[in-house]
Amino acid sequence: MNDDQADPVELAALREAFGVDGCGASALGWERVRAFEAEHGVVLPEPYRTFVATVTDGSFQGPPEYGLLALAEGGGGQRLGEPFPLTRMWLWEQDDGPYEDPDAVIEQVARDGSIVLGTDGCGMDWHLIVSGPHRGHIWQITGEGAVPFGARFGHTTAEAGFAGWVRHWADGREWFDGPAA
Fold first, then answer.
1. Domain ranges of the chain
2. Which residues make Cβ contacts (< 8 Å) with residue 159, sequence separation at least 6?
3. How many CB atoms lie within 10 A of CB 82?
4. Domain of life of the organism in this record (predicted)?
């Protein structure tokens, strides 16, 4: 996973995965992507950055189940310049974690350093981390906790990052198809 430079092979796979989308969504273009980044004080991780600039800005087809949100929808209400606070899975319904004020951290998890990519419904939202140590990774955030997506974190055999997340979906695989970490 390289979150600083778009891989042409990954971009081709992303174009193919979303190529059947007849919803009319269009790419933002570089000028609008750069304006969004300047407004929010971040540089979006690759290949998502090039994807929204050149392929499409949102899609009615997945991933996730209810479609991919447009950049402004998923990032508009977030504090993107603040670092995402987690680096490992945390099920806050089972454990307060090592936090003095777990409720404050839970609020940060939902708001800081991530773009909401969309939802699978029932409060199961997918986020792309745009700042902090997990920049470029995908996390599923629910009312019960937060779990990073990618083989290195357990629960799935997929590659980490936006391209791995989309490829996993395009291959028709279950989200959590691996052993628990």
1. 8-170
2. 1, 150, 151, 167, 168
3. 17
4. Bacteria
CB 81 within 8 A of CB 108: no
The whole-angstrom separation of Cα 8 and Cα 177 is 27
Cβ–Cβ < 8 Å for 148, 34: no
3-state secondary structure of 118: strand
Q: Splitting the chain (181 residues) into consecutive groups of 10 residues, what average pLDDT does each group show?
A: 78 81 67 95 96 89 87 86 93 82 89 94 92 95 92 84 92 72 42
CATH assignment of 8-170, among 3.30.300, 3.30.200, 3.30.70, 3.40.1580: 3.40.1580
DSSP helix, strand, coil percent of the chain (3-state; round to 5)? 30, 15, 55
Assigned token pair, 169: 């979906």
Rounded to whole angstroms, the Cα distance separating 71 from 46 reads 14
**Whose CA is closest to 114, among 87, 90, 89, 134?**
134
- Cα 48 off chain centre by: 9
The whole-angstrom separation of Cα 166 and Cα 134 is: 18
The pTM is what? Answer: 0.89
